[in-house]
Amino acid sequence: MDIISLPIKYDKEKIDGSYRLVMAAVKRAKALSQGSLPVIASKAKKITTLAIEEVASGAVNILTGEAAVKASEEARKQIHQKVIDEAQQKETMPEDMTESRRRRSRTFSETAD
User: Fold this and answer.
1) Are 28 and 54 in contact (CB under 8 A)?
2) Residues 54/30, Cβ–Cβ less than 8 Å
3) Which residues contact 42 (CB under 8 A, 6 or more apart)?
4) What is the 3-state secondary structure of 64-110?
5) In angstroms, rounded to a whole number, what is the distance separating the alpha carbons of residues 39 and 36?
6) According to the model, what pLDDT value does residue 98 have?
7) In terms of residue numbers, what domain contains 14?
8) CB 39 within 8 A of CB 51
9) Rounded Cα–Cα distance for residues 43 and 5 (Å)
10) Each residue of 43-84: pLDDT tens digit?
11) Residue 57 CB partners (closer than 8 Å, separation 6+)
12) How far apart are the C-alpha atoms of 30 and 58, rounded to whole Å?
């Protein structure tokens, strides 16, 4: 079993500290657990290990400062729009017939013949 060696080596120009590395790895692990696909080939069996490898290797972008704030706001807007779209879609979809209504309609059609 491969274990990430400590201390983890990463590009100090892209990642300005171990705290940022950990926080980025946490967010990446969450994304992976929610279905995102890995961006690097790895022997890692755990999502957290894979996330650390991806962040430390620079395979995923880490946004900081104003760019991070803008990206966060944009993500919130997209989530909000998705929720609104789903709500509107539910309003326009016809209700499914309940099982009792189906039985009644079958019984009625059988007696009509």
Assistant:
1) yes
2) no
3) 49, 50, 53, 54
4) CHHHHHHHHHHHHHHHHHHHHHHHHHHHHCCCCCCHHHHHHHHHHHH
5) 9
6) 55
7) 1-62
8) no
9) 14
10) 888 999 999 999 988 888 888 889 889 999 999 999 999 999
11) 10, 40
12) 17
Higher pLDDT, 102 or 34: 34
Q: Which two tokens stand for residue 30?
A: 């969450």
pTM of the full structure: 0.61
What's the structural domain count of the chain?
2
Maximum separation of any 2 CA atoms in the chain, in Å: 80
CA distances from 83 to 47, 78, 89, 90 (A): 28, 9, 10, 11
User: Is the Cβ–Cβ distance between 31 and 63 less than 8 Å?
Assistant: no
- Whether 3 and 54 map to the same domain: the answer is yes
Same-domain status, 41 and 81: no
Which among 24, 26, 29 is positioned nearest to 42, based on CA atoms? 29
